[in-house]
Amino acid sequence: MSDLIVLTNQRRFPRARVTCDIISGNRSQLWHSYTRDISLGGCRVAGSSPFSPGKPLALKMTHPSIPEPVAMVGTVVRLCGDTENAVGMVFAKQWSGMSKFEEWIRKVIANDPNAARIVSQTPDYLPLQAQLHRAPQPLIERLLLPGELALMQRLDRSTLPVPLLDLRTEWGDGWEQRAQVVFGLIAEGIILCSMPEQPMTSPAGVIVPPYATEDDPKPIAL
Question: Strand pairing of 21-25 and 56-63?
Fold first, then answer.
């Protein structure tokens, strides 16, 4: 089990809900769909992909706010059925056009106020003493992932805010990966995060006379 004192956001760039048209394919087949969310590391694409996981694909994305399209290479890593009905893709980090792609993504997000807000509100890390609880009336505009639903149900079972320390104990090995959903839920305002109140104590080395009144001299620092 980790001895870290903080939970670090493992995403180099937060995931934002941005809808981009995307064409993916190889030499024999093309698939046209749109993104449900996107980051510099990958995206979720709506629908059922005709491509099996593990194969690299050529990608072409467009967005109304940017006149020119952008190219990328990606790989299908996850097929999500049922109500989610989406495809998880990761981008090729070593592809020669990565820098141009990153610039394009940043422009798209900057032109979308809601996406820009979510990115700016995504924490880089959280102290393990941080306490989590459901927002009073969250505006949930998407289907939650299974890991997000599991966390929400855990918060609902508690009448008090749940510290990250408790989740680390309950989830055991691999808890850091499982807890990554916290960052997106905080950024979207679905859950809230607070720090426990610290008890008031007198500073060390300060003498406070028991008979002091408002007119008496201030405490003396040793």
Answer: antiparallel
